[in-house]
Structure formats: C-alpha cells, structure tokens
Write a structure and sequence with these properties.
eight-stranded parallel sheet, 32% helix, Urease, subunit C, domain 1, alpha/beta, 14 helices, seven-stranded mixed sheet, binds dihydropyrimidine-2,4(1H,3H)-dione, binds zinc ion
Length: 470
C-alpha cells in the first residue's frame, strides 16, 4: 500500500516544514515538497491520500519506560501488553520499551525468556525490552553480553527495594564495568532504599500510615544522594548512565554537574513530576492520594522542583520524557495499602497522556515544538538504540507517524481513556491538542476516534547500542 500524507506541517527535532510524507508498505520512502502530486503520479499515484491540513505530522512517540503486567508485592500492574500498547497508540506512542525483570535468586536468562514469551503476539505497536538486573552475579554479568547481542542493550539497576531487586554498590560497579565493555546502557533507579526503609518503618511505627507518608519518607535528599553515588560509580566504571524517573531539583543538580564536566550521564523525567505535587495530589483525604503513589515520589510544591524540571528539559540536562506507566486500580490494588502506605503498589498509569501533557508544555511556553518531538520521540529512540528506524520521519525509517491536531481541546477522564484502569490520575485536566491519526509501520491504527489496530501487529525490536555512546 502506498500512502501520501499531505497538507500537514512536519515537525522534527530540529524544526517545522510544510511537507508531504510518502509511505510504501511499512516504510517512509520520501519527504516531498508541498504540491508533489506530479511526483507521485509519476510513480503511479498513491493508493491512499491522508489529508493533514492544519495538523502536525510527527514521528510516533517512543516511550522507553513502561511496565505492563508488572508483578509487584502481591499484585500485577493492570495493563497487559495488549491493553497497554493499545492505550499507547491512542495517545500517539508507537514504540515502547518495557522491562524483563530478574529478581533476587532468579536467573537472568529465565526471566528474560519468560518476558519475551509474555509479550509475543500481544502488542498493538512495536516494543523492546530492557533487562532489570536484580541479582548481579557472575552469570548475570555474562548474560549482559549475550543480551546486548540479542537487541537488549540497556540494563536497569535499583538502589532501592532491598530484598527484591536492590543492588549494592559493588554489584552496581560490576554491572557498570560490564556495560563499559559491551556497550550497554545502565539505567538507574536512584533512591537510597536502605535509608528510605528506615524512615518508612519509623513513620508506620508512629501511626503515620496515610499515602502522603510515601512522599515524606522518600526524601529528595535520598534521591540526590543516590544520583550522586550512581554518577560517581559510573565514572569509576567508565560506563554511560541514564537516570530514570528523576523528580527532585537536588538530583537534577547532580546530573547537571556531571554533564557540565562532560560525563556521559543522561536523565529522564515523567509527566507526573511536571504536573502533580505532594500537597495537592498525594496528600488527599479518603485515600485518594493513593492514586499518586509512585517512586520516585511527587515532590512538594513549596520548592522549585517542577520549574527546575522544565528548565532541565530546555537545557537538555533532562533528555527524555517517558511515563513510567505502571497502572494499579484503586479497587483491590491501591486498596492493599489502605492501612499502611508501604503496601500501596507504586505506580501511575499515564502511557496515553504523555504526548498531550508535554505538548501542553509547548503551549505554556516551557519548550519549543521541535523540543516536544525531540523529548518524546527522537532522543528516546536515539538513547535506546532504535534510531533511525524510530524517532524520525525520513526515507528508510519505519512509517510510525502521528497526525496531531494542535487546536483540539479536550478533557482527560477515566470515562474516555483506554488504559485498563478504574481511575485517572489526570482526571479533569483539559489539554490543548489531540492525537487524531496514528500509523504504525505504515498501517493506520487510530483514525476517526476508532482503533483499527490488532494485537500482534507490534514486533519485538532488536535494539542497537545507544547513539549517545562515545
Ligand atoms: N520504579 C519504576 O521505575 N517503576 C515503578 C516503581 C519503581 O519504583
Ligand atoms: Zn524505578
Ligand atoms: Zn518504572
């Protein structure tokens, strides 16, 4: 099938141009000047023309931090690969990178293969996997090399959650040294979990059990300290480092200092940290705050965290916006922690809203239009070894394309979202633009407010090394 998208403004990471996009099968074959009918008819004409007048035409979103069917503390995150990737498509995301998780005592290979099987044939859009190393043994280190060869070129480590996926500094250093040798990218959950667990136990012993205590005990200093430590370990291990879900000013300062001295240190933040805060969202009565329990936690509005995160997004000290999509229903899931915040499963569902919430940053004057595309599509693709197949509209790239209406205000609600979730953390937020048409590898999967995709269309992406390695 040959498709021509015409009349729209193509937005890339470097600018905006009136252009037509010609697709053959799954691939973009040309970007043409407007009014290219002649060029097309010379080839026999497009079989389908999509009118993109007054629309932005952008590379499909790349969300490199999601958790479908994640098993945590006696429950499982509510979106499966099927439902979560469908919701992603509705929100203009055409590639995700999720995680395979090795917990303490498990073999990396077993955990990886189980996750590959779980995702196979389920996804509406393309997907890749990072590997969580929750037990850095000699075998795990060897497996890292094989996984890089198999297209799994990034490894997440946790400085939190002792007893399940926590790594101590020696394990972290070993994994970094291995990554330095095989070209892998180390992703870090940077919070001092040992200290957090002490504070959490003390809070519970005092009877401070409401959801807001989750935010109080996961102090910004403990994110900052862990971020600093991770950066220094990466320096010693000579490995590149990517800090996930950064939320605190003090942690961003550590990343900025490292980058200013030229270190290969990168960080992502997530929409929840840009729009929600501890007082208004986490500290709500009637257990409503449980909807906003995630780690790292929401930060207080009385400091400058949100303004500083936006600044970081402008200056590139924050390079990527991902969602950390990890949805848990209130009923039977968040409710597990009704008497003790420590038992509330950590996570917010937001895969469907990232493109809209960050576009709102454009209309609010926080970032430019090209920066929106760079943060949500181009850089995540480059960072995770998916570029130039993903993250850019150019000949040879996959035809993963979104037509975005920048003038269609609408209000997010549990009533209109597509995530498998009984509430929306974004309930009632009016966003300025809307995803209208989505193509995944040349196939129209969202159009006219209708989902036209199928489970199993999404293919596993064997990723290369990060483009940011030097
Ligand atoms: N870290 C994540 O990246 N996601 C969910 C919970 C967590 O701690
Ligand atoms: Zn994490
Ligand atoms: Zn996560």
């Amino acid at each position: 099938m040959t498709i021509l998208i015409k009349g729209g403004t193509v937005i890339s990471a470097v600018g905006a141009d009136l252009a037509e996009v010609l697709i053959e099968g799954e691939t973009i074959v040309a970007l043409l000047s407007p009014g290219s009918d002649l060029a097309v008819s010379a080839e026999g004409g497009a079989e389908r023309v999509i009118d993109a007048t007054d629309r932005y035409v952008i590379p499909g979103g790349v969300d490199v931090h999601t958790h479908m069917s994640l098993v945590v503390a006696g429950t499982v995150s509510a979106d499966t690969f099927e439902t979560g990737t469908r919701a992603a498509a509705w929100g203009g995301t055409t590639t995700i990178v999720d995680f395979a998780t090795q917990e303490r005592g498990q073999q990396v290979r077993d955990s990886f293969e189980a996750r590959v099987d779980e995702a196979a044939g389920e996804c509406a859009i393309d997907y890749g996997l990072h590997m969580v190393l929750g037990d850095v043994t000699d075998d795990a280190l060897k497996q890292m090399d094989s996984l890089v060869d198999e297209g799994v070129s990034s490894f997440k480590l946790f400085m939190a959650y002792p007893g399940t996926v926590y790594s101590d500094d020696g394990q972290i250093l070993r994994a970094m040294q291995q990554a330095a040798g095989n070209g892998g990218l180390i992703m870090m959950h940077a919070e001092n979990g040992i200290a957090i667990d002490v504070l959490a136990e003390q809070a519970a012993a005092r009877g401070d059990t409401d959801p807001v205590n989750h935010g109080y005990v996961r102090r910004a200093e403990l994110e900052s300290e862990a971020t600093h430590r991770a950066i220094q370990l990466a320096r010693v291990g000579a490995a590149p480092l990517y800090i996930v879900h950064l939320s605190a000013t003090e942690a961003l300062e550590q990343v900025t200092i490292a980058r200013d001295r030229g270190a290969n240190v990168f960080a992502e933040t997530c929409p929840q940290y840009l729009y929600f805060n501890l007082e208004d969202h986490l500290d709500q009565d009637n257990f409503e705050g449980a909807k906003y329990v995630c780690s790292t936690p929401l930060r207080t509005k009385h400091e400058h965290h949100q303004a500083d995160l936006w600044t970081g997004l402008r200056t590139n000290d924050l390079s990527v916006v991902s969602t950390d999509h990890c949805p848990f229903c209130m009923k039977e899931q968040k409710e597990m922690g009704v008497n003790d915040f420590r038992s509330i499963p950590n996570g917010i569902g937001g895969i469907e809203h990232r493109m809209d919430m960050i576009y709102q940053g454009v209309t609010q004057g926080e970032i430019s239009l090209p920066r929106w595309v760079e943060l949500c599509s181009t850089t995540p693709a480059r960072m995770m070894g998916l570029y130039p197949k993903k993250g850019v509209l150019q000949p040879g790239s996959d035809a993963d394309i979104v037509l975005y209406n920048p003038n269609h205000e609408w209000t997010i609600s549990v009533e209109n979202h597509h995530m498998n979730l009984d509430h929306s953390a974004y309930e009632g937020i009016t966003v300025p633009g809307k995803v209208e048409t989505v193509l995944s590898r040349g196939r129209v999967i969202i159009e006219n407010d209708t989902y036209k995709g199928t489970k199993g269309h999404g293919q596993f992406q064997r990723r290369g090394l990060s483009s940011y390695l030097i």
